Amino acid sequence: MNRIAIPAVDTATGATAEVYAKVRKAAGGQVPNLFAALGHLSPGVLSAYLDAEGALAVAGLGRKDLETIKLAVSAQTGCDYCVAAHDMLGKMAGLSADDTRAIRTLQPTGDDKRDSLVRFVLATLRESGTVPAETLAEIRAAGYGDKQVVAIAFAIALTVFTNTFNRINDTDVDFPAVQ
């Protein structure tokens, strides 16, 4: 249950109403609970987040890879809200139910390139200090260039932000339960 009280989305005014309109346009008329909370508390932060997601969408990774990253990060951090969201969005991006199940349980998918991506993401999250050269060499060998490494790092950072906020707020999950 949300720990931060959020008024009904349809009562929003000013900058909050404006950013909710952007969310509705992008999300088929809905304002997911995460965005409702962020927009109510800080419309500027939500607007910046949406702009960052727009930049990420054209940063050199496909939707399957982006959802793989976001689902792996969310599973690693234990964010039930984002696991449910990215499980659904991953399937919408073309990942199979078996793929999303494997990624969210941090198990191999059987796709060498996808598994390399998950290993890279998890190593980046789990290890402190400089990412080992062999970890970077593995992701490059899997076919990801330096431009994609930037996008991977950005996707990790954005996902850690939403994971952290949801874990603090205990945001009510408004996505289908994972199977």
Describe the structure.
The chain is mainly alpha-helical and 179 residues long. 68% of the residues lie in helices and 0% in strands. The chain has nine helices and no strands. The mean pLDDT is 97.
Explain the layout of strands and helices.
Elements: H1 14-26, H2 33-41, H3 43-57, H4 63-77, H5 80-92, H6 97-104, H7 112-126, H8 133-141, H9 146-169
Q: Based on CA inertia axes, which overall geometry fits?
A: globular
Question: Strand-and-helix sequence, N→C?
Answer: HHHHHHHHH
The average pLDDT score comes to 97
Structural category: mainly alpha
**Rg from C-alpha positions?**
17 Å
Distance between the termini: 21 Å
The main sheet comes to: none
Proportion of residues in β-strands: under 5%
How many beta-strand segments?
0
Share of helix among residues?
55-70%
Number of helical runs? Answer: 9
Low-confidence stretches: none
Summarize this structure briefly.
With 179 residues, this protein is mostly helical. The chain is 68% helix and 0% strand.
Task: Pick out its properties.
9 helices; 0% strand; mainly alpha; 179 residues
